[in-house]
Amino acid sequence: MTEYIYRPITSGADFRDCFEALTRRYRRVIPTAIDNIAGQTVGTILRQAREAKMTIEELHIERVEYDQYIADAGYDRWYPEYYSFNRFEKRLEHFVALRLLEVSSRDIFIDVAAENSPVYEIYQRLTGARTFCQDIMYPKGVNGRRIGGDATAMPIGQGFASKAALTCSLEHFEEDSDIRLFHELHRILVPGGKVCVVPFYLYVEDAIQTDPTVSGPLELSFDPTLPIYCAEGWGNRFGRFYSPAGFMSRIFSPLRAMFEFKFYHFPDVSSIDQSIYLRFAFTATRI
After folding, report:
1. β-strands 280-286, 259-265: how paired?
2. CA 287 to chain centre
3. Residues of the chain whose pLDDT is less than 50?
4. How many beta carbons lie within 10 A of that of residue 139, not counting itself?
5. Model pLDDT, residue 147
6. Strand 161-167 to strand 146-148: parallel, antiparallel, or no bridges (unpaired)?
7. Residue 261 phi/psi, 5° resolution?
8. Rounded to whole angstroms, what are the CA distances from 218 to 12, 91, 197, 210?
9. Looking at residue 3, what is its pLDDT?
10. What is the pLDDT of residue 9?
């Protein structure tokens, strides 16, 4: 198996050429990124969720609580370069995950598909929890607080953790690895353990997003039944967007005996900053 590289280095690929190559392989290829945060689109997603029996709770960000988290986390002091171009989004994702998971000193927490996120350090410092970060790009095995290898087959024991988070990560799990991930989370979480996914990328249809200048040179294959949206300059090989009905049939229904799912909508995040694209999140509590 070829080593997975989240953002491989590509050089000289032309967007138009790579887009046209995709149109010769797939029946529906769209030359723009997915816009799943426009007000009308969010309204359609919420209507579709009701029709799919996906109950979504509306949550509002308490600004005083959020500002206190930002100050306590010390992003500007200790992590000024972490996603400096997207800092409002990332900091909100971390805040939401901490709030929904209610991490405490009794927990063992894993930041799954963490890349270079400082969230495991922040959560340990703020809560006293024992924390780890996991990513396929880390050296394989458990090395200190880093867990290396495939998130769908972690080198840790059954019931190792009580809390886990995927911040801007689930969408990058290709083929059936999103399904296999939840089977692995069921294995490594204790009964009553909880995982938070934020953002939860919902759209009005099941769809794939790619930057064809990245996926094209890698000759990635996509599900031919799904539309492929092409995001110029995005820099990522793969992103999965679920329709509400699609998530219910792909993840929720097959796993309902293993997890209790709760879904959330954040209607007022743009008041923090207009750049924020978080609109939905969910938690899954291991049964």
Report:
1. antiparallel
2. 22
3. 1
4. 10
5. 98
6. unpaired
7. -95, 140
8. 13, 31, 27, 12
9. 67
10. 72
Residue carrying structure tokens 């998971």:
101
Residues 6+ apart with CB under 8 A from 70: 91, 95
Both tokens of residue 199? Answer: 């953002």
Instruction: Tell me what pLDDT residue 7 has.
Output: 73
- Global pTM value: 0.96
Q: Which amino acid is at 170?
A: L
Q: Which of 231, 215, 235 is nearest to 31 (CA)?
A: 231
